Amino acid sequence: MIKIEELKFDKDGLIPAIVVDVMTKDVLTLAYMNKESLEITLNERRTCFFSRSRQELWRKGETSGNVQHVVSITADCDKDALVVKVEKDGPACHTGAESCFYQPLYINEEKNEFSMRGLYALLMDRKATLPQGSYTTYLFEKGLDKILKKVGEENTEVIIAAKADDKKETIYEIADLTYHILVLMAQMGITVDEVQKELASRHVIDHKVKQEKMT
User: Fold this and answer.
1) Residue 139's domain is classified under what CATH number?
2) Are 150 and 142 in contact (CB under 8 A)?
3) Residue 46 main-chain phi, psi, to 5 deg
């Protein structure tokens, strides 16, 4: 274990802190800490940063409720940067995105691994930038009613394909429905993590019920 005194803060008394979701391993944000905010972070076990623009301390989630609970803090080999692993109560970004890093600059399609969070991040980028010619942009511009209509239509398509016992078509329609559900989530500011937590809570309840029945 190293001590705060061993860390190398820059000329302004700051050290970069890379915040990572301990569950998903996603990089959530890059912020800065001074000695005081780092001490607060260690004492309170929740992230506290120093705002370079406002020149003041700020605790993540103080106004939004999206608190980041610290799991570990690790310094790099030069002791001039930190990785802060956290459990978060909500989105890391003020835009409502899970991570502040959601605007792709380059993606190697051959190497890129698909994930729901990756798709959600792409949808959040579409919502923020509204690129012309994008079907997703069209949905966001039309608004909630149009998105809900598409969710209803795709849900019906899934039922029809499944009723016909057509596995390939059902997979195709489920993919369409999933995409539109994610668009709805992005529109409403519902994150993948929030849905995952809800499902996890039901799993715990189901497990308890099974245990009770067994006894």
Assistant:
1) 1.10.287.1080
2) no
3) -145, 150
**Of the candidates 98, 14, 75, the residue with the CA atom closest to the CA atom of residue 49:** 14
Digit-coded pLDDT (tens) for 132-147: 999 999 999 999 999 9
Residues 31/17, Cβ–Cβ less than 8 Å: yes
Place of tokens 């608190």: 67
Same domain for 131 and 72? no
Is pLDDT of 210 > 90? no
β-pairing verdict for 15-21 and 82-88:
parallel
Residues in the chain: 215
How many domains does the chain divide into? 2
CB 33 within 8 A of CB 9: no
Domain housing 197: 116-210
DSSP the chain: ---GGGS---TTS-EEEEEEETTT--EEEEEEE-HHHHHHHHHHTB-EEEETTTTEEEETTTTT---EEEEEEEE-TTSS-EEEEEEESS-SSTTS-SSS----S---TTTPPP-HHHHHHHHHHHHHH--TT-HHHHHHHH-HHHHHHHHHHHHHHHHHHHHTT-HHHHHHHHHHHHHHHHHHHHHHT--HHHHHHHHHHHHHHHHHHHHHHH-
Q: How confident is the model at residue 103 (pLDDT cuts 50, 70, 90)?
A: confident
